[in-house]
Amino acid sequence: MSGRTDSVAGPAEAEEAERAEPVIRHEDDVDAEFHDEARRARWLATGTGALLTLAGVAAALLRLTGPAPALVPAAYATGAAVCAAAALLGARGRTRRALWLLIAGTMVMALGDQFD
Description:
Layout: H1 11-19, H2 27-65, H3 71-91, H4 95-114
Helix pairs in contact: 2-3, 2-4, 3-4
């Protein structure tokens, strides 16, 4: 049992490990992570805004051709316009405001559905 395993370091390797500096993350790495998260948030806000805009316009057109009161398609169209504004804000990096506009636009569309 005098054989050396790979998990045991020799005296020279142990001294080298003690003298080694701790791994410090560079500012470039932190900045790159921040920019990646910001880019994902912009894409998510833009995509969600565009999707809700298309859904609102489609719902407004469907309700416009049916027997629903005029307030219903108007509410869907207004909600779609608010979501389109949110998509534009999200593309420009204003993701927090875009989120609130997405919520408001969805609530306007839901309110229009209540009048049906």
